[in-house]
Amino acid sequence: MKKDSLKxxxxxxxxxxxxxxxxxxxxxxxxxxxxxxxxxxNVNRLLETCQQERVVAGRLAELERHRxxxxxxxxxxxxxxQVSEGPxxxxxxxxxxxxxxxxxxxxxxxRLRSLAEETGRRSAILRAAATTLCRHMGGVIQAVNTSLGKxxxxxxxxxxxxxxxxxxxxxxxxx
Length: 175
What we know:
175 residues, mainly alpha, two-stranded antiparallel ribbon, 2 strands, 76% helix
């Protein structure tokens, strides 16, 4: 009975770990879209990507809750005395499993760990780039507002803001 219950819990754990890995893969795809949005300075696309990431992050949080509950149950089966000290980590659970059950859990855990590390690294880079982009865009807007506030009213031919005093000298008569 104990072995059948443990086998079912191991299968459930592997399913959860694989689902988490699939969601981290989706998250990496969204991060790639966010990187493209930052490269092209497309703030709207970046915001859409962030919303999609939040949905995936919500699913990951729910899966993590299920994984934590399953680990608690498995901890009670594998080491009833240790439950008072708190649940074991997935790696500790894996070490205490019968050898036949260990490879699938190890493989799923290793894949998930590498995806989570990659996601964290790329997410931090994207966050820094997006912050820099937002600061830059804010600076451009502030510079334009400042220039327009000083009596400047038009753009010249090269995209520079021209003052009204020079306007008569830069009229484009070809229009």
